Amino acid sequence: MAGGAGVTRKVVVVGAGFGGLAAACELAARGAEVTLLERAAVPGGKAQRVAHGGFAWDTGPTLLTLPAVLDEVLGLAGMRLRDAVRAVPLSPLCRYRFASGATLDHHADRDAMVAGIGAIDARDAAQWPAFEQHVRALWETVGRAYVDEPFTGALDLAARSARRGAGTVAMQLGLRTLGQHAARWFRSPEMRQFVGRFATYVGASPFRAPAALAMIAAVEGAGDAVYPVGGMARVAAVFADAARRLGVTLRLDEPVRRIERDGKGWRVSTDARTADADAVLLDVDPLYAATLFDDGSAARDSLDADRGRTRSLSALVVHVALRGRTEALALHNVLFPANYAAEFDDVMERGALPSDGTVYVAAPSPVDAGTAPEGHEALFTLVNAPADLRASDDASVARVQDHVLARLAAVDPSLPGRVVALHAQRPMFIASTGSADGAIYGVAPHGSLGTFRRPLARVAGARGLYLAGGCSHPGGGVPMTVRSGQHAARTLAADLRLDVAPALAVPA
Ligand SMILES: Cc1cc2nc3c(=O)[nH]c(=O)nc-3n(C[C@H](O)[C@H](O)[C@H](O)COP(=O)(O)OP(=O)(O)OC[C@H]3O[C@@H](n4cnc5c(N)ncnc54)[C@H](O)[C@@H]3O)c2cc1C
């Protein structure tokens, strides 16, 4: 029986993004009666697929790092990612193209990296082995201490990092920004951009984010990143399957309208029903979640605490349908502008779409036949956008589409002539997943202590209310949101004294 007093505890999870799905699986495995309420018709949140005219594109995540984290959750249902999804290894992990005309393929292999960087700058190439060791040590000590366990304070994190052998690795960061840290290691503008871009993986500006985010280079460079055939929506469907196998009641097309206190528990209302729960776990941005509670309630005030802090990046996505193939593209590509600082001035400081923004391009058709008809190709392209839905008016969107095509033409001059269709996906889509202002990752982790100020699993002052998802600790990105779901579920389980030990039932 779950629940210390021998009663089954009821938990409502709001939102079937990766955080909500992971939390629901964990809680069900610990014996809770879990209802997962999802506004959309499909699970996955930001990770969906859209189709037009025989082409199909992802709506959000395309690059899957740390797949082993996902297996921890699937294992509770006796499942494994590699059995359920064809996961294509990436080589290169990502192809970076710079305004200078230089190209760098990110490989896990050190010698390949040294050779690639050597074609750009010989001194930077000589720096790579030490830099790689530095970011790997940072990730294995401070990073894992921060990500793999619930956050309980900076001092505790320092102690846990030290136990993992951090030594002086964190001291090397000082109070520098990621941009400053990149400039200490590398002299070429290309390598500084390469390192700086990892800030955008958590929706931050490299010129304001802490140097510790350099560790994301180690996560991307670990060599286990994959492309899931069918896109990340397919992975979300596998998570939903795991949740159902574990006994979770998943209700799609059921937006939660209101959550209120009900004695010691909570009452959660949709248009169709009202559910009573001992605890509620929210897989949405806290600023949006606040709107589900009554004005003046402790829950609303607590969830609203970060209003006014700088929001993380949003994104304007352009889905491109093409005749033929673009051989010069790898599966993941980044096309950098000449002036990176100007891009973040535009987006973060002026709240405008960039006049010359970085273009990210995913080209999955060579390994994912379901994305395009024979002899055709689907490209997912993305430009950083401000977390301000007013910035994506029709004229701005048309300008971004032209910019994307111009940058793609520099990769392959034949490309504009091969375009069959273009579809813009505005930041409004991101807002519709429960992300206030379309900010993908909630508050931007800016400032040297920025990452320590993420919302934590327990909502302060509102007993029985918990947060998970890309806006909470440890941060955004699919594996991090899965971690957030695990942390929130385990915190909730400890508070409710769910006493069933989850059994790992992974097939041999
Ligand atoms: C364009 C883009 C590109 C990205 N690229 C990558 C990438 O390459 N790799 C990577 O790892 N990450 C990437 N990310 C980030 C990643 O997608 C997110 O961090 C992660 O998917 C968020 O998961 P989540 O658990 O926070 O839930 P979300 O995906 O935010 O889902 C929340 C869910 O809650 C539901 N909901 C909202 N309100 C209600 C309500 N009232 N009632 C019921 N349900 C509700 C929504 O419909 C949604 O399904 C990208 C994101 C975007 C937008």
Radius of gyration: 22 Å
Quick one: biggest sheet?
7 strands, mixed
Derived structural class: alpha/beta
Please give the count of helices.
16
- The overall average pLDDT, rounded, is 94
Topology-level CATH name of the largest domain: FAD/NAD(P)-binding domain
Give the neighbour order of strands across the main sheet. Answer: 7-6-15-16-17-14-18
Q: How does the overall form come out from the CA principal axes? A: globular
What is the level 1 CATH name of the largest domain?
Alpha Beta
Please name the fourth-level CATH homologous superfamily of the largest domain: FAD/NAD(P)-binding domain
- Low-pLDDT residue spans: none
Strand residues, percent = 15-25%
How many domains, in number, for the residues? Answer: 3
Number-wise, the strands total 19
Ends apart, CA distance between termini = 28 Å
Q: Which CATH architecture of the largest domain is right?
A: 3-Layer(bba) Sandwich
What are the bound molecules? flavin-adenine dinucleotide
What fraction, in percent, of the residue positions are helical? 25-40%
